[in-house]
Amino acid sequence: MLKPEILDPQGQAVQRALPRLGFQGISDVRQGKRFELEVDGPVDDAALARIHEMAETFLANTVIEDFVVKVEAAEGSAGAQK
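^ that's the sequence the OP posted. Answer follows.
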């Protein structure tokens, strides 16, 4: 996601369009991007550290974006929720 201090014209355009489309009660919209990675093998501390490094050095533009790395169960795996 863009850092809070970075202007988000796309998010502002979406926010202005929502009431015209019948969607009320939204006070702010921020546009962002999402990467979904499928990891080979276990997601242990070493894998998470490597993924965090990948996000920080390659996937995110850390000058203007914040990022979060989180683990979710893959669909169809034990414990996965829909």
